[in-house]
């Protein structure tokens, strides 16, 4: 399954609304607060794209067969480059391949080890070990608990 990466701002707001308001996506995004609107999505996408200028890396929108599958990439979280991945449920089976693709780009982006923060609702995590991540502990962000994983290399 080939996937392509694009700036988040290149995606029409209506496509983001389908993803970000999907109930199965929302239940794994504890920092999201309520229903997204077109204006909120447009501002959110611009802010995500701005991370590239600020940090030298950031997230991408992900397309599979030309259609929006989700978003993901590296975001600064304190001193760490944190890997985020949010996929539409129709594409959940592609996560490992997409994470491998992101991880293959980290040296070119000047990124060493990588963290992943998952909410406790994400209980299926054994695949992270196969991708080279180990559980590091727990953190709290904006009052929400996350389990933190770190790449071994």
Give the key terms:
153 residues, alpha+beta
Your description of this structure?
It is a single chain. The protein is of the alpha+beta class. It has one domain (3-111): 3-Layer(aba) Sandwich (Aminopeptidase), CATH 3.40.630.30. The chain has 5 helices and 7 strands. It has a 7-stranded mixed beta sheet with strand order 1-2-3-4-5-7-6, with helices on both faces. A hairpin with a 2-residue loop joins β2 and β3 (67-77). α1 (13-20) packs across α3 (38-55). It is globular, with a radius of gyration of 15 Å. The two termini are 26 Å apart. 22% of the residues are buried.
What is the compact description of this entry?
With 153 residues, the chain is of the alpha+beta class. It has 5 helices and 7 strands; from the N terminus they run βαααβββαβαββ. A 7-stranded mixed β-sheet has the order 1-2-3-4-5-7-6, with helices on both faces.
Strand content: 25-35%
| Tally of distinct domains | 1
Determine the N-to-C terminus distance.
Answer: 26 Å
Order of helices and strands: EHHHEEEHEHEE
| Radius of gyration (Å) | 15 Å
CATH topology: Aminopeptidase
Provide the spatial order of strands within the biggest beta sheet. 1-2-3-4-5-7-6
Count the strands? 7
Q: Which overall shape is indicated by the principal axes computed on the Cα atoms?
A: globular
Return the structural class: alpha+beta
| Mean pLDDT over the residues | 90
- The H-level CATH homologous superfamily, spelled out, is Gcn5-related N-acetyltransferase (GNAT)
């Amino acid at each position: 399954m080939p996937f392509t990466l694009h700036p988040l701002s290149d995606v029409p707001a209506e496509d983001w609304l389908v993803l970000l308001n999907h109930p199965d996506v929302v239940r794994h995004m504890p920092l999201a607060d309520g229903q997204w609107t077109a204006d909120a999505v447009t501002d959110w996408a611009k802010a995500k794209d701005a991370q590239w200028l600020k940090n030298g890396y950031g997230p991408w929108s992900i397309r599979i067969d030309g259609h929006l599958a989700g978003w993901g990439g590296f975001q600064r979280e304190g001193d760490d480059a944190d890997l985020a991945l949010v996929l539409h449920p129709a594409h959940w089976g592609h996560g490992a391949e997409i994470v491998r693709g992101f991880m293959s780009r980290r040296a070119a982006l000047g990124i060493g080890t990588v963290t992943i923060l998952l909410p406790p609702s994400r209980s299926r995590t054994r695949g992270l070990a196969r991708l080279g991540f180990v559980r590091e502990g727990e953190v709290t962000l904006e009052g929400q608990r996350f389990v933190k994983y770190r790449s071994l290399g």
